[in-house]
Amino acid sequence: MTTLTRGPEAVRLPAPAPAARRRGRWVTITLFLLPALVLFLLLVVAPMLVAVYSSAFKWNGFGGLPTDFIGLDNFTRLFGSEIFAQDLWHLLVLVVLSICLQLPFSLALAMLLNQRIRGRALYRVVFFAPYVLSEVITGVLFSLILAPDAGMANQLLSVFGIESEWLANPDTVMPSLFIVMTWKYFGFHMMIYLAGRQNIPNELIEAAQIDGATGWKTFRHVTLPLLGPTIRISIFLSVIYTIQLFDLVWILTGGGPSHSSETMAVTMMEWGFKRTQVGYASAISVVMFVLSLVFALIYQRFVMRRDLEGASTSMGGRR
Amino acid sequence: MNHGKATRARRTTLPLHLIAWIVGAFILIPVVYALLGGFKQNSELSANPFGLPETWATGNYTEVLASGSFWLQMWNSTFIAVATTVVTVALSALAAFVFARFAFRGRELYFTLFTAGLMFPFAVAILPIFVLLRTLGLLDNPMGVILTQAAFGLPLTIIILRGFFRSIPGELEEAATIDGCTPFGFFWRILLPMARPAIATVSVLAIVGSWNNFMLPLVVFSEEASWTLPLGIQQFQGQYASDTARILAYLVLAMVPALGFYAVAERHLVGGLTAGATKG
């Protein structure tokens, strides 16, 4: 009777079940779990292992598993490469810009749309809309808008006497890329903040105001600390996304001009598919993986630790 | 009295509206530019980028709509998105059911294995996946993309569904079993219908993820017949490099399904996408 249990708390109640029923139970478990497990092992776990494995080989991607073992040569070559150093620099630039500009901008708009202003539902819908468009659509659209000479951005900004080659100029390409990223993603972060804000009981805010706190003080000392878990998650998502950034850069600039907007994923695709140095490209992917993993572990260990211990960190506390 | 209050409120919110309008313009101007630009001649596009077209040239739009490749890409994207969602949700639901309602040796180990999958970014595995799909003969085959997307969708979907399945009281299951329900019967007839909100969330994630995916189709599909919309858009831009108005028309038409889906299921979409992300 109790072979079906309610959850982990019932694990320690193994009622003696008839052998036939127990066998039936195992058949169910196996049949239900196996399809997902096989697919996952075949297409997620195995490729991850192969990526790590092949990073120690010189390999063009053909003829079964690689055989030309070269130890850590791919990595030494990678760490000595100027392009890779630039990739890391671009990652840092985009992460800093996101945390210092894009996320505060999103937070400010979330606070704005948390006010009772007319039409805020419409504003929310519009601000979130770019997030549902693909990075390819976004990228192609902005590559036309930011085109040199007669591009729309130049025509619009010529009113202020600003004109640039945007994506074709190494000095402006990273800010341009960042603006496109912001266009696409700030609405998403704004929605996360709005949901986080709505989890804060209004009584707390009102109490602060009754005690005489001004708008800014209420925000600084009540709302902002209470939004801490939400903000930490959005920073986490933003960094992990930036480490893997590919589509948008590939479409907008292809990493150019002369590698000045290249990211690790773009470098990896260049070497893996255009020059078929799969071993070297795998080394890049391993670095991407290790970076995400180390960042995630450190961040969760030291920054999000308090949040994970019971506080409601996610939407509606459904974690 | 009442009236005075209302005007005061309007006056204080005026700066807020101003900011919201500026941000709204930042969001909308590119899209409106594309929409109107699709109706213009290329010469007019550079002379008059913002105004309404002098003559509404519908040629760009109708030519895209009349081209077989656009509809083929639309079909490919739809088919792959739907199939990915069905496979992801079906396999995840079965696994999540076992994780949520059965106690067996190794359960936590298997579950941890799946959750560790959250840490495996897709881009990292793309080269071995390409080699594997080539070995299996799944290049230029929609199944190559569908199965891979489903595999990478499993961890988050299983986590969300397991959480939901666990919240359903055990008494319900006992009652169903007493009434002669098999485990699968309980799963199929009681659990799944109850889990509709969670299923909606994970389906939204799977559909949008598949619809917008670019990297995987880029390496798997080389034949034009298999292309999805993102590949088609990228290729179209390359092919008509100087014909900006035509590309804009193509872009606008390619936006329609995503924005239409958003308009219809706004609440589900926002809820699903943000909940899914924050749960990772």
UniProtKB/TrEMBL annotation, chain A:
Q: Which residues form the ABC transmembrane type-1 domain?
A: 88-299
Its protein name is Sugar ABC transporter permease
Give any Gene Ontology cellular component. Answer: plasma membrane
Q: What's a Pfam family this protein contains?
A: BPD_transp_1
The UniProt transmembrane annotation reads: 31-53, 88-113, 125-147, 173-195, 233-252, 278-299
Instruction: Extract one GO BP annotation from the record.
Output: transmembrane transport
Q: Which Gene3D superfamilies match?
A: MetI-like
Q: Does the keyword Ion transport apply?
A: no
Family per record = Belongs to the binding-protein-dependent transport system permease family.
InterPro entries assigned: MetI-like (IPR000515), MetI-like_sf (IPR035906), UgpAE/MalFG_permease (IPR050809)
Topology versus the membrane: Multi-pass membrane protein
Kindly give the PROSITE patterns that the UniProt entry links to this protein.
ABC_TM1
Keywords carried by this UniProt record: Cell membrane, Membrane, Transmembrane, Transmembrane helix, Transport
UniProt lineage: Bacteria, Bacillati, Actinomycetota, Actinomycetes, Streptosporangiales
For whether the record's keyword set contains Cell membrane, the answer is yes
Automatic annotation (TrEMBL), chain B:
TM helices/strands, residue ranges: 12-36, 79-102, 109-133, 145-165, 186-208, 247-265
Q: Reply yes or no: does the keyword Mitochondrion apply.
A: no
Query: Signal sequence: where?
Result: none
Task: One GO cellular component term, please give it.
Answer: plasma membrane
Primary localization: membrane
Annotated Pfam families: BPD_transp_1 (PF00528)
Domain ABC transmembrane type-1, chain residue ranges per copy: 74-265
Biological-process GO terms, alphabetical: transmembrane transport
Keyword Cell membrane set for record: yes
- Membrane-topology descriptor: Multi-pass membrane protein
Q: Where in the cell is it found?
A: Cell membrane
> Keyword set for this entry?
Cell membrane, Membrane, Transmembrane, Transmembrane helix, Transport
Family per UniProt?
Belongs to the binding-protein-dependent transport system permease family.
Q: What PANTHER family does its record include? A: ABC TRANSPORTER PERMEASE PROTEIN MG189-RELATED (PTHR43744:SF12), ABC TRANSPORTER PERMEASE PROTEIN MG189-RELATED-RELATED (PTHR43744)
Q: What name appears for this protein in its UniProt entry?
A: Carbohydrate ABC transporter permease
Tell me the organism's taxonomic lineage. Bacteria, Bacillati, Actinomycetota, Actinomycetes, Streptosporangiales
